[in-house]
Each structure stands twice: as C-alpha cells, then as structure tokens.
Write the structure tokens for this entry.
Amino acid sequence: MTESTITAKGQTTVPRQVRDQIGAGPGTRLVWHVMPNGSLLVRAKTKSLLDLAGTLSSPDGKVVPVEDMNAWR
C-alpha cells in the first residue's frame, strides 16, 4: 500500500506507483468521491464523453434520430 501526506495548503502528491498504474501524467484530472461509509474513491478522469464518439454502431446500420431516443416525447 502506498500513501501520501496532505500539506498545509491541502495539496498532496500522487505516488509514482499509483500514477504508473492508472496512466496518469501532468494534466490528468482526479475526481474525488466520499462514499456514504466514509471511504474515499478517487478516479482518474482520463477520457471525455467525446472520446467515445463513433465507438458504437448499430448492428443493422440503422441511424436513429435523437428525437426518437427521447422517451418522454
């Protein structure tokens, strides 16, 4: 297990071992979640939703307009 210390300014360094395992480098954003039981979950935000564009396709090649996707209409 690795650990780091929070400075007086509220900063900490992500240990190299952790950075290497998650592929984090300069500019990587971290998302912090405090769980109901008090534990902490930190995720590296390495992809945006736009990175997923075009990764899925319809098996039959049919395109569905956005208006048809809205269940409330």
The mean pLDDT is 87. The beta strands are 29-34, 40-45.
